[in-house]
Amino acid sequence: MGLDEAATKPHEQLAAHLTAKLDAVNELIRKRMASRHAPRIPEVTAHLVEAGGKRLRPMLTLAAADMCGYGGEFDVHLAATVEFIHTATLLHDDVVDESAQRRGRPTANLLWDNKSSVLVGDYLFSRAFQLMVETGSLRVLDILANASATIAEGEVLQLTAARDLSTTEAIYLQIVRGKTAALFSAATEVGGVIASAPETQVRALYEYGDALGIAFQIVDDLLDYQGDMSVTGKNVGDDFRERKLTLPVIKAIAAADDDERAFWRRTIEKGDQRDGDLDHAMALLNAHDTLSQTRQDALAWAEKAKSALAAMPEHSLRTMLIDLADYVVARIS
Amino acid sequence: MGLDEAATKPHEQLAAHLTAKLDAVNELIRKRMASRHAPRIPEVTAHLVEAGGKRLRPMLTLAAADMCGYGGEFDVHLAATVEFIHTATLLHDDVVDESAQRRGRPTANLLWDNKSSVLVGDYLFSRAFQLMVETGSLRVLDILANASATIAEGEVLQLTAARDLSTTEAIYLQIVRGKTAALFSAATEVGGVIASAPETQVRALYEYGDALGIAFQIVDDLLDYQGDMSVTGKNVGDDFRERKLTLPVIKAIAAADDDERAFWRRTIEKGDQRDGDLDHAMALLNAHDTLSQTRQDALAWAEKAKSALAAMPEHSLRTMLIDLADYVVARIS
Fold first, then answer.
1. pLDDT tens per residue across span B154-202
2. Where would you tag: which of A14, A127, B68, B84 has the fewest CB atoms within 10 A of its CB?
């Protein structure tokens, strides 16, 4: 890719370092995505799989396995597995969120229909399942089965906790683990497991992925209230308008007086939003300083990710993963 | 259940014979369906799991394992697994079909929403995955991963083949394997595998489930054109109105002259249906004798199912499974 020299961002450095393996992952993804009888499948997925995703999760698996000295081929299977699971959840999320755009392009459910998004998501999930069975590692299967359950449970929890003002930070954290961190931590952990790394390292890889994923999602939620649309591609206040309870609002509700609670009840719980409400919500977040508290939380998770890697041996990939944790929170620092 | 004496139908005889194991399956299903944090999950699934399903697929697994002399507990895990996979596909099917009723009750997507149906289906699939990993059998995982892929591919194929007059009997068969037979054959096969049955018996169990599932689905499609609504719960001609290409129509199209082909193109491909079209369609099916040809196909698959069991040792369960194959086609004989 010619990135070796020019690469500055950590995920580009990772991609440059892992380029041969990443090519093998992309080849395997293309091969396993194909369906002899149902051409709709690659149509729907090519759209997503080739839509400029950074392959962040596959890189986490490849980097973990490489750091642990793995010399086999199943890291490629597992990297493709996590990308398939990720893509499957995106397809189903777009149905659930009724999204019209992802990564600046129309979503599959808009281009085709919800039916294809549901069924092709199921297809990718079953293909992921086949890929991981091929590794022959029951421990890997156990980790990915548990991650899948955490993802699904988190998604349902998000649906039921939505618009419920009693949502706590603990529930938020569980939703975030489901949405993002469970697949990050499974991606890094299975890399260590397939390489037969010592238990302390497998645990460290899990901790890194978990903390990185949580930091990643908190940053995303924070940027919704203070991001630059030209950078984030999101309008400020989308989550407020969609009545999503994210960390800045959960913290503000916990600190709210009666009037403020009535405001949140009207705007989030009842969905009765008027002109000026977003400005008032922003004022409340600022009054209770919850944006900077949320920022502190994200930074603390990034630090936790970095400390976890202390258990890993010195390695250029370890340095890149440490830089990646810093990069994830750089947008809000 | 007090069914031992009164039981006449084969699935009731199976239930009576397997009653202790079935109770364990139901207990495991209840336990694994629960979610500490997302009460919506058991709400949505209880509705389906307790809505009077016959537990046909779990019974196939239990019967297969029992016939092969299995003495362990993992047959219960696998029976719950296949029921979870079945329930997950029902939830997703209802979204795809935009169904309003199943088994005479409102569907989950109508009672709650499509979002819950998609996500709770994903949850059940991941719970199924966890259950099968607990058996520790890579071969079982391989069989169920392949069945999942066949199911998902068949569903997508059905979507893309819908309303396409060039759909052949071979494509129909693949759709039917995805919709029905893949889970039947996986259910019986894993019963033999977990019991470490000889290969000839494992193969026979697979063949039985495959042929039984195909017979089952062909009967269902045939009854749509000639069933008694008070028995089937379906209106005659629902598939025609929904422009579904099932076996009686595929056979009629293959035998159609130009005028008839124009009729099918207008009604099925273009969806321009007028008063009297269903009567005309029925007349064409009768003119080409495709209802009785379809009936012959179903009977032949039921025979194939029964012959497969010749490889199994003499056993009261074997007799019940033979009777079950006859029972499946009895409604059209």
1. 988 888 777 889 999 999 999 999 999 999 999 999 999 999 999 999 9
2. B68
B residues 115-154 near A, CB within 8 Å?
A: 115-116, 118-120, 122-123, 125-127, 129-130, 133, 136, 138, 141-142, 145-146, 148-149, 151-153
| A:B CB pairs within 8 Å | 137
Judged by phi (left if over 0) then psi (alpha if -120 to 50, else beta), residue A52 lies in left
Confidence of residue B4 (pLDDT cuts 50, 70, 90): very low
Measured distance CA(A57)–CA(B161) in Å, rounded = 34
Q: Does domain B9-330 match CATH 1.10.10.10? A: no
Q: What is the DSSP string of A106-162?
A: E-HHHHS-HHHHHHHHHHHHHHHHHHHHHTT-HHHHHHHHHHHHHHHHHHHHHHHHT
Q: How far apart are CA B273 and CA B277, in angstroms?
A: 6
C-alpha separations of B129 from A69, A167, A206, B276 in Å:
29, 29, 21, 48
End-to-end Cα separation, chain B, in angstroms: 30
CA A78 to chain B, closest CA, distance in angstroms equals 15
Q: Is the ipTM of this complex over 0.85?
A: yes
H-run or E-run covering A101: strand A101-102
**Across-strand partners of B102?**
B105
Confidence of residue B275 (pLDDT cuts 50, 70, 90): very high
- For chain B, which residues make up each domain, given as ranges? 9-330
* CATH superfamily name and code, A8-330: Farnesyl Diphosphate Synthase (1.10.600.10)
3-class DSSP assignment, residue B2 = coil
